[in-house]
């Protein structure tokens, strides 16, 4: 008995292989979505594209299916994103899963060359941009101005620490945020921020709208400077 692989099965194997290659780089970096996840996302995308082709046999059906794949993987990627306080992780993993779906779709369409090139570019981007990102992060960690702000209030919903960077988003970076509950029912927000440049209008002007709010009992701040 002979076994012959047709072109559709070849496309599925290519999608599975390329997804596994993408996942190998992720797993090597100890990320949550590794070989299996990216391989299955790529394979699933190729299966849906081939399903649309087998049902109607026209490119319009494939286009509609690919549009649904994009939306579906968006929900899948959202599950990889975690938020802890002001810190968000998993965005790169979610984006990689999204790209794996695109690679699978290309494979399902028979665009093998494009799928391979896309995989190579994706892996290069994940490796090379990581080092650039780390260098930028180290630069920000060496910001010359460090602000510590403490806001005491008796209103639980009165203040959001992200308000402080709305007026100076290009200069301020929140590094930590903490809430302390006092025995008298009040609470103290402690926010630590870093700035590459000193705030032009001064920290006092930045905090003035908060000081004037009803329910704000006390606002104090301090600044330290370090060399870059």
Please give a structural write-up:
Helices cover 54% and strands 19% of the residues. By secondary structure, the protein is an alpha+beta fold. It has two domains: 7-139, no CATH class; 145-225, Alpha-Beta Plaits, CATH 3.30.70.260. The strands form two sheets. It has a four-stranded antiparallel beta sheet, with helices on one face. A two-stranded antiparallel ribbon has the order 1-2. The radius of gyration is 25 Å and the shape is elongated. It starts with 6 loop residues before the first helix and ends with a strand. The relative contact order is 0.12.
Key phrases:
2 domains, four-stranded antiparallel β-sheet, Alpha-Beta Plaits, 228 residues, alpha+beta, 6 strands
